[in-house]
Amino acid sequence: MTTPPVASELNLCLCHSCGLACDMTGEPHQCERCGAPLHRRKTNSLTRTWAYLLTSLVFYVPANLLPVMNTKMVGNGADSTIMGGVLDFWQHGAWDIALIIFIASIAVPGVKFVALMLLLITVHRNSLWARKERSTLYRFVELIGYWSMLDVIVVALVASLVKFQALADIEPRPGILFFGLVVVFTMLSAMSFDPRLIWDNEQDKNSHTEEDMDEVASH
């Protein structure tokens, strides 16, 4: 059974901007259609992914420990953290809002942290384990990343609803800022990871590392 050639063997590269398959022969390496710079692999992919991921983990601690909002009812105010807010909404019968906040604020970041660490560690170890499944996992991480701002949106909507009905007054607290930073850095981490590294063997990785170093030196 003949194995079909890969893009690198045909000296082709897919443009990240417009999706055109471009010939990498000659200089400079720019897309013929849109003029964007071409890279066979994302430059310093693993380093940037680790940096963004660790930064998001650092921000995740104050995002859960610091209050995200302050609720004032009849002159009495109380701060609440993300988990505290989930419990408050649940106890007051708003289980749907509590479930949305829990999924968006606790479950989704946790899944992304575990998934990205798994992808990074297996790539570093040159693992051949479950390549197809790991590629699917990366696409799943990209998909859920679009819904990561649900918690911030829910807090804003609840605050607007409460003020509109003159039931109480809700003000944001520093925790919501840190959670927003967690969302941003996890998205940057997922965007920096190059899923094609999952399918590379050791020889391919060494050649791509040399190409990345040459690209950095030329710039």
Automatic annotation (TrEMBL):
Keywords: Cell inner membrane, Cell membrane, Membrane, Transmembrane, Transmembrane helix. The keyword Repeat does not apply. It comes from the Bacteria. The keyword Cytoplasm does not apply. Its main location: membrane. The chain crosses the membrane at residues 50-69, 97-123, 144-164, 176-193. It is found in: Cell inner membrane. This is Paraquat-inducible protein A.
